[in-house]
Structure formats: C-alpha cells, structure tokens
Amino acid sequence: MGDDFVIETKGLTKQFAGFTAVRGVDLRVRRGSIHALIGPNGAGKTTCFNLLTKFLEPTGGTISFNGRDITRARPADVARMGIVRSFQISAVFPHLTARENVRVALQRKRGDNFDFWRSKRVLDAYNDEARRLLDDVGLSGFAETAAVEMPYGRKRALEIATTLALEPEVMLLDEPMAGMGHEDISRVVELVRRVSKGRTVLMVEHNLSVVADLSDTITVLTRGQTLAEGDYAAVSANPEVRQAYLGSSHG
Q1: 131 with 14, same domain?
Q2: Pair 23, 78 in one domain
Q3: Which end of the chain is more exposed for a tag (fewer CB within 10 A), N or C?
C-alpha cells in the first residue's frame, strides 16, 4: 500500500445469513482528502462503515490503516489508532451542556474510563480545550446550553466537536446532513470543510449537491459492489450511475 492512502480495503465482503451486503469492495481513501460513499438505499454504504470501524467483522477481504492490517482489530483499538466515527443519529448526552459533552470526550484521552468521580479541579482543566473546540465548530454561544435544547443543526456541530476531541486522523461521517434544513446544511458543509484541514474525511451522504461541493473522490456503491469511482464530474456523467439513481429519492 502506498503512503498516499490512509485506508485501503481489498475484496471487502460481508454476508448475513446468505445475503451479501458488501461484495468484493476495493476502497482506497487518499490521505488528507474528503471521500464520499454514495449509492441508493441498500447499496451497502453503512455496512462498509461498520466494517471499517469494526462494529462488524468482514466475511472476506482485508482492511488496512496506514499500511497496518486492522481486519481483526477491535473497535476500541481502531478508534485509538485514529479512525473515529460520528454517528448518523446524534450521539451526545442530551442533558449535559455543550461544554460538558466535549469535556467528556476529552476525558477519553486519559484512558478507557470517563473519570466521572474525579475532582472538579481535574475536570476543569479540560474547560479551556472544550471552549476552543466549541469555538472551532461555531458553538461558543452554546457552551452552557443543554444538548437537548439545541437546534438540530447545532447538535450535529456539537457531535462533530466531540468527535474532534478524540483527535482523529480519519473522521467517518455518517450522513452528517440528514434531517437538516438549507441553512443548517450550509453551516455544516462549511464546518466539514474547515475540520477536514489536516485530516481525512470519509462520509456517507445522500445529498448529492453536498457531495459535489465537498468531495475530492466519490465511490458509488450499488447492491454491495463498486459501480464507479472518481470526482463528481466523472461519476455524475457515468451512465451506469445515472441508471442506479433513476427513480430514487436521492438528489
């Protein structure tokens, strides 16, 4: 594997009781790029994410990260190496403030425990870094707001802040724009562009205008297989891609 690629899969396959969800996928994610996985419903996108983060074990094929075989690694080990996933359904503590949510994520760097029992003085040491991360995602005005009271788009920004707190080398974003209105989408697009500096982003996204705006490389999956790959101009001109999306609700 060349140094240019941070994640590489070869022949990645996942079967469920006779159904093949992912079939022989060769994926190469270039270091420092924004790479999108797209495809109609049931194409295998989320299964690929689950395989990369080791929430699922592959039936066949290999996964490499920075040239190291991680095919059989545990999810916690993969996260520690620097592959961190932001979940499709907002994964924050609803009744903690934005600052407290980020602070909990920062505590992960101490080890496996969340240190809830530690003194206030120890925990307050995280506050400056938490504020900086909130500033980075445009949430400085929401630091003391409970997550449950935040608008949907802002809650997604908080989720990205908690992901950044884990200092990922690769961020996997699972439908970051899902359920958002136009104004929130514009804000989160700019946020993803900003946080991608100095790291690699792999995202599953249905909104093709977002994909066109953000992505360096796009991999199109259909029925668990790679249909096409390239930049947006090449992929959108591909007649097989057009056919796969024909009549689908994604646009």
Answers
A1: no
A2: yes
A3: C
CATH of the domain at 37: 3.40.50.300
For residues 44 and 116, state if they share a domain.
no
Q: In this structure, are residues 81 and 167 in contact, taking their beta carbons and an 8 Å threshold?
A: no
Q: At how many degrees (to 10) do helices 182-195 and 152-164 cross?
A: 10
**Per-residue confidence in pLDDT tens, the chain, 251 aa:** 446 999 999 999 999 998 999 999 999 999 999 999 999 888 999 999 999 999 999 999 999 999 999 999 999 899 889 999 886 556 789 999 999 999 888 887 665 455 555 666 666 778 889 999 999 899 999 999 999 999 988 998 999 999 888 889 999 999 888 888 888 888 889 999 998 998 999 999 988 899 999 999 999 999 999 999 999 999 989 998 888 875 444 44
Length of the chain: 251
Alpha carbon distance 215, 39 (integer Å)? 15
Q: How far apart are CA 224 and CA 12, in angstroms?
A: 10
End position of a domain, from candidates 127, 159, 191: 159
DSSP string, 6-35: EEEEEEEEEEETTEEEEEEEEEEEETT-EE
Nearest-Å Rg of the Cα atoms of the chain is 19
